[in-house]
Automatic annotation (TrEMBL), chains A, B:
InterPro entries: PurM-like_C_dom, PurM-like_C_sf, PurM-like_N, PurM-like_N_sf, ThiL-like. GO terms for biological process: thiamine biosynthetic process; thiamine diphosphate biosynthetic process. Its EC number is 2.7.4.16. This is Thiamine-monophosphate kinase. The gene is thiL. Mg(2+) 5 binds at residue 191. The lineage of its organism: Archaea, Methanobacteriati, Methanobacteriota, Stenosarchaea group, Halobacteria.
Length: 289, 289
């Protein structure tokens, strides 16, 4: 079975595992394992790897509307090099400084390739789950989509500095906190917008009518040659870590004033079916390696 | 550099990383990465692996005198098999049911070999650190030592059922909770008694005068052929996950009445030097692979 099937099966055994983070007794906890071969393309600096590993978990905490408290990482590499570890830790600490939470170390280990498991715990007084979307609400996304897709293309072109910058995304912790208690349903777009929408639809037993244009990163506009490529990068590629949420129409204006990141309405919650401009939106996207 | 050197260096960057678990804002967090090749000998069942992986982190939480709230595990294997994952999860949940905390799932991934990162978060209202030992206090250890050393020998002999049972240790969460606010210093014996004592001595700037006999597991008595082997298994092998702590002499009797696990006085805190029966106790033990 692939990871997704296994996760679904696992969710049956562990009911708390079906959301971006588990919520127990007012605490949200999430853990993510990353590998060099699947998550850090050639050219990714150790600083970026540390940032991104912890940021991915911070994004899960943000997607619950929770406040990060502490982050830890277990770090394994073929040979442990202090300079590399130190750069990794600097990146991990930097993203915590930017959005909240304290990086408090972790575990070190030998392994065949760089393998990092990051875990973040936060306080979740008003957790937002995937299951609360209601027909009539607006569907929104923070920031822009396609950032990681563009970064990968830049890594391939050897433009590693710009690629590393794009890879060091800002987890939407502040937005998640503001949306807590106001969004009906929320998750992050780490598997791609299309897959996220299908997951929200399944959890909330609803549908989504999405309308283009989607808010796409300027680097995508620059890199993609065709509208088809732009759509692919924006809707399917994933690893973007924006928040996808549903909010009452009447709350939109006020939320936009409060948020320091853009909140784009991309459609509305309907009874069933996930469509883009009236056509079925396929349930495909990034399957985490 | 080896893991220990790197950890020490890391502790300089991340001051919270020098104890069994980091404590931030009333929460204790710990993470541990385990691999089949170094941590799960041939014959270890998936149920035992799940139990032991989460138990190792629960032990770190216990060593802070904290209350476990939630446990997560990131699980990677060459190919994901639902039966194996299910058995792993059952083991992970079982140990949480036994000592407290809720197992709430985690992440699944492909990897070259079974690699598990378990993380536990707990509430730490009265955390006990490694640094609080005071000369004159009694040095104590919970339960018995040498259990994992004996298990490894049994795995080698093909007595896998008994070996698995020994491997599924009970983290001393209840004892840790009882010792919180009363022990001067505490840590678990995962690196072996000798190394634990040296780490406590360094953190507390003190010494320990230890007297034999050490409380050794009955299986060690059965398996070890010589007194030298018993000593090796009890004092140095490690991976036992008992609590090593210092407590005021006058508190000992009361603590023993309250605890459901044995608490053996093995010596006393002195100004400097770590000795066993008057001879220097070498600072060696298990270096986690």
């Amino acid at each position: 079975m692939d990871e997704r099937e296994a996760l679904r099966a696992l969710a049956g055994t562990v009911p708390e595992a079906g959301d971006d983070a588990a919520v127990v007794d007012g605490l949200a906890v999430t853990t993510d394992m990353l590998h060099r071969s699947t998550d850090f393309p050639a050219g990714t600096t150790q600083y970026t790897a540390g940032w991104r590993a912890v940021a991915a978990s911070l994004s899960d905490i943000a997607a619950m509307g929770a406040d990060p408290v502490a982050a830890v990482a277990a770090y394994a590499e073929t040979s442990l090099d202090w300079g590399e570890i130190e750069a990794f830790v600097r990146g991990a600490k930097a993203v915590c400084t930017e959005v909240g939470g304290e990086y408090v170390g972790g575990d070190l280990d030998d392994h065949e390739e760089l393998t990092v498991t990051s875990t973040v715990v936060g306080r979740a007084d008003r957790p937002v789950f995937r299951s609360g979307a209601t027909p009539g609400e607006a569907v929104c996304v923070t920031g822009t989509l396609g950032r990681s897709a563009a970064a990968l293309e830049l890594f391939e072109r050897g433009e590693t500095e710009r690629a590393n910058e794009l890879f060091r995304f800002t987890p939407r912790v502040e937005a998640g906190r503001t949306l807590a208690g106001r969004a009906g349903a929320m998750m992050d777009s780490s598997d791609g917008l299309a897959r996220s929408l299908h997951q929200l639809a399944e959890a909330s037993d609803c549908g989504f009518a999405i309308e283009s244009p989607l808010p796409v990163d300027t680097t995508v506009e620059e890199i993609a040659d065709t509208a088809e490529q732009r759509r692919e990068m924006g809707a399917f590629f994933g690893e973007d870590f924006e928040l996808v949420c549903t909010v009452p129409e009447e709350a939109l204006e006020r939320l936009r004033e409060e948020l320091s990141v853009g909140l784009t309405k991309i459609g509305r919650v309907v009874e069933s079916g996930v469509t883009l401009d009236g056509e079925p939106l396929p349930d495909r996207g990034y399957t985490h390696g």
